Amino acid sequence: MLEVVDLTVAYGPVEAVRDLSFKVRKGSVVTLIGPNGAGKTTTLNALSGLLPVRDGKILLRGRDITRMGSHRRVSEGIVQVPEGRQVLAGMTVHENLELGGYRRPQAEVGADIARMEERFPILGERRHALAGTLSGGEQQMLAIARGLMALPRLLLLDEPSLGLAPKLVQEIFRIVRELRDNGQTILLVEQNARQALAVSNYAYVMESGKVVLEGPAEDLRSDPAVIRTYLGQPTGRS
Amino acid sequence: MELLAQQLINGLFIGSVYGLFAVGYTLVFGVLDILNLAHPAIFTLGGLVALWLVEGAHFSIWAAFPSAVLFAGLLGLILDRIAFFPIRRRADSNFSGLISSIAMAILFESAAFALFGARTVRFPANTVTNRVWQVAGVTITSLQVEIVLTAILFMVGLTQLLKRTRVGKAIRAVAENDRAARLLGIHVDRIIAFTFFLSSAMGGAAGILFGLYFDALSPDMGRSIEIKGLAVIILGGMGSIPGAILGGLAFGLTEVLTVAITGTSNLRDAVAFTMLFAILIFRPSGFLGRRSMREA
What we know:
The complex is a heterodimer. Chain A has helices at about 40-50, 70-75, 95-100, 105-120, 120-125, 135-150, 165-180, 195-200, 215-220, 225-230; strands at about 1-10, 15-25, 30-35, 55-60, 65, 80, 155-160, 185-190, 200-205, 210-215. Chain A is an alpha/beta fold. In chain A, helix 3 (about 95-100) runs parallel beside helix 6. Chain B is about 75% helix and about 5% strand. Chain B has helices at about 1-30, 40-55, 60-85, 95-115, 140-165, 165-175, 180-185, 190-215, 220-235, 240-260, 270-280, 290-295; strands spanning about 130-135, 140. Chain B is globular. The relative contact order of chain B is 0.20.
């Protein structure tokens, strides 16, 4: 599905991601874990076309999309649910979902919104509420539902559990698991490494813009170095 | 009493033109957080081009009006492309955009001087058939009615476009969070260009109505409305469309009432701007300011 080859992304002279390579297979959930500043979010933003790539390649289904505009990537199926939800607070829940399907034939969008409202009943109940009035957990659900409205081939989830109460964290991971079981390909960035590894097939550990360790999620969960660094605390969020 | 009623009516007419001008002004501010100081120059060119179409090309006003509005919209596209697009990704684009919009204002104004001369010009006498009605002692002309209806049509049209259409929702999304908009697949640069088109078309329309109402057009007529337009959008709340409409009406009414009460036009601007001053002190976000909402 996705292949990233020797990707370098820089903010001015500072290289936030250097020679990064990884793959996401169709139907799998791949997670990037690592400390703050490791370049995880930078990587996702480069995949979405929000940041220019200095060097390297991004291939989606074998096609080079390294220089493609962000709007066209959404049509190609790369859809990001960004960190901090980024719902459009001044617009209604319904309008947020509509805009999720912005690049699709508008005739299909209405029916899909109905499906989303069935799947996330709270979004149906609060259809006409401004998205900014939703709670953090509800906003995260809206952000995910909005992302799904674009019919992603590859869903990029950036810190979906950040800032949520433990019960809601469970709820968000339940949704991720459900998506995985339905065959959705996902690239997940999480600080909650324990939960992330539990839902993933494969994982990359990033530090200072590079992959320092990779392997099947199962193996990393029992890797002493990973346990020490990322799974040390019972909540996983240090 | 009749004089007062007459003045209120007049205030309503001129206020609707101010409102139309300000709606375009505030639309760009709402989307980009940039004051487009070339807006008054487009207002001027809209009026002058309509005049040229009527006088030089012998269009009827009904054909000249939409053509000149379209032309003003196209000027908006050029304006965005030259003054704003190249610097958009820079960190200081708000300030540099302000400066480059001043440059474009000067360019547009010079073009108006070169093409139309420095004198005051007017539409030919028979451009609009102007019927005059006396209603309960108040004089209303068909031109005034047409002006206010046109202004209302534009303002309602814009409001509905923003509220109901796909492109309108995209404009609102970009206004609120351009990063999120890009992640939704919205072509942000194109939406901004379209916003400039709409804004400038409305500015041009206001210029034509203004020229018809005061029966005078000149290359520097933008000056007279530039600061007023700014006052109107501050009054209404920066970036708020209904605020700009309300602000325009309030400003128009204040102007004519000042003239009516003091009996002289000397104090007209003074009172209107004193009101602005008071608003800035007591309600800095304007009537319908959305700054506070945005920051929440």
